[in-house]
Amino acid sequence: YTIQKYGEPIMPMGQVSEEVLHAAKETILKYEHAMYKFEFHTVMNLMDTYIRDANKFWAKNIKDAEADTEKRNQVLIDTLHMVKTAMVLMHPVAPKGTELLCEYLGFGKDIWNWEHVFDTLTDLAKANGETEHRLKFLEPRFDFFPMKAR
User: Fold this and answer.
1) CA-CA distance, 144 to 146, in Å (whole number)?
2) pLDDT of 62-115, one tens digit each?
3) Does residue 33 lie within any of the structural domains?
4) Confidence class for position 150, pLDDT limits 50, 70, 90
5) Three-class DSSP category at 133
6) pTM, to two decimals
7) In this predicted structure, what is the pLDDT of residue 66?
8) Do the domain assignments include residue 114?
9) Whether the predicted pLDDT of 149 surpasses 60
10) Which domain covers residue 84, as residue numbers?
11) What span, in angstroms and rounded, lies between the C-alpha atoms of 17 and 88?
12) Is residue 60 part of a domain?
């Protein structure tokens, strides 16, 4: 929604911060190991922590960055990478909500391919030949994971 607030719903493209990439990679590797061992409780705890950390990252950084376009874009790039990572990892658990999120991000089914799990959204957009990537318009307070099924 913040992207739309400042203009067209076009995803900012750029490099994800090293610490965000590192946290995502560590989470993916721990997730893969836990899934291999059928430790689904570990998977859910891992995802709970990752998603909470992403939310804390957003809350901590967006207010300071809103007045500065470059800082705001970096926070958005980093946060969108965390969202993409969480979305891909949560897909087996919550397919409808994650597929809806994928639709709003404007990516196809290739995003679920494990070969792309470490790729950023910028990598995926550029692989599709895009120089700018349009997002689907998002209404304020839209819920991708409602308690009641759509």
Assistant:
1) 6
2) 998 988 999 999 999 999 999 999 999 999 999 999 999 999 999 999 999 999
3) yes
4) low
5) strand
6) 0.92
7) 86
8) yes
9) no
10) 2-6+15-134
11) 19
12) yes
Cα distance between residue 144 and residue 150, in whole Å = 10
Residues across the chain: 150
CATH number for position 56: 1.10.730.10
Report DSSP state, residue 136.
Answer: P
* Dihedral sign, Cα of residue 112, residue 92, residue 117, residue 130: positive
For 129, the 3-state DSSP assignment is coil
Residue 55 lies in a domain: yes
**Structural domain total, the chain:** 1
Q: How far is CA 142 from CA 1, 137, 138, in A?
A: 9, 11, 7
DSSP-assigned letter for residue 92: T
Tell me what pLDDT residue 15 has.
Answer: 98
Vertex 99: Cα angle to 27 and 6 (nearest 5)? 85
Q: Which helix (H) or strand (E) holds 56?
A: helix 40-65
pLDDT at 1 over 80: no
